[in-house]
From TrEMBL:
Keywords: Signal. It comes from Cylicocyclus nassatus. This is PAN-3 domain-containing protein. Residues 1-25 form the signal peptide.
């Protein structure tokens, strides 16, 4: 149980909440304003609006509280540090967990929940190819101060680059090409055309379900596996780094093939 959590009685006294509606799911959540809570900062980002900040929290696996002030979005997870903030801070609640019927001041659309369908691995035999294709998209894996993972195809100046993942920028008709997306929080990658909907961002990158060449170049020669790293998020790796080797890792049993993958720490 979260220490310092606002009681259900005090929640009823609040007249403002935010109702979030998912387009493709019969499920709603609310963000309820609070002033005191116990948690731990996940990370901070500069964002354009409070709506985007709240969507980032929803998309982030561990976000429980979120605040927005002067274009700074601060995400908090459950923890033991006590906070009393001047800016409005919200607590995420699923309506199924609430014992009251909230009257909300406004509604904000969420990204839809899309179910990932596992993609069968195709050809894994050795291929003959040379060098990288001319068009490559690099997606960086970043560590926050607490080693929470983020992914972006641009430089995030406030975070430490941990790994680079090179993807083909164009699909290949002779291979099973898998487009790569991310969500508002950039906390994981999403693979497949099912994520080509509003709320997800295409990273101009393609992975492949099997080994793949493109005009003699190595478009998909390096296998990466998706791991869930408990307490830190997701990782897409071809080899386990020493900082991850003895951590609580769960292999998601999904493999893709890309141009290259290199640890930078």
């Amino acid at each position: 149980m979260l220490a310092g959590r606002v009681s259900s009685h005090s929640v009823r006294l609040l007249t403002l909440c935010l109702l979030f509606v998912q387009t493709y799911a019969n499920r709603e959540i609310t963000y309820t304003p609070i002033t005191n809570f116990s948690g731990r900062i996940l990370y901070q980002r500069n964002v354009e609006s409070e709506d985007l900040c709240l969507n980032i929290c929803y998309d982030c696996l561990y976000c429980k509280f979120v605040s927005f002030s002067e274009d700074i979005c601060t995400l908090y997870q459950m923890g033991s540090n006590t906070y009393s903030l001047n800016e409005v801070t919200y607590e995420l609640k699923h309506t199924a967990d609430l014992d009251y019927n909230p009257t909300c001041a406004r509604e904000v659309p969420l990204r839809p929940t899309v179910r990932f369908e596992p993609i069968d691995v195709q050809n894994t035999e050795s291929i003959t190819c040379s060098g990288a294709p001319s068009d490559v998209t690099t997606i960086y894996m970043y560590f926050t101060d607490r080693d929470f993972t983020l992914f972006a195809n641009t430089k995030l100046e406030d975070f430490k680059v941990a790994k680079r993942l090179d993807f083909a920028r164009t699909s290949q008709p002779h291979c099973d090409s898998v487009p790569v997306f991310t969500g508002p929080s950039s906390s994981r990658l999403y693979f497949g055309t099912a994520f080509n909907v509003s709320g997800y961002h295409f990273l101009n990158a393609y992975a492949f379900a099997g080994k793949c060449t493109c005009n003699g170049a190595c478009c998909g020669d390096i296998a990466i596996d998706e791991y869930y790293w408990k307490g830190h998020g997701y990782a897409y790796v071809n080899s386990l780094h020493s900082i991850m080797r003895y951590c609580n890792l769960l292999n998601e049993q999904q493999q893709f093939f890309i141009v290259d993958a290199q640890w930078l720490v």
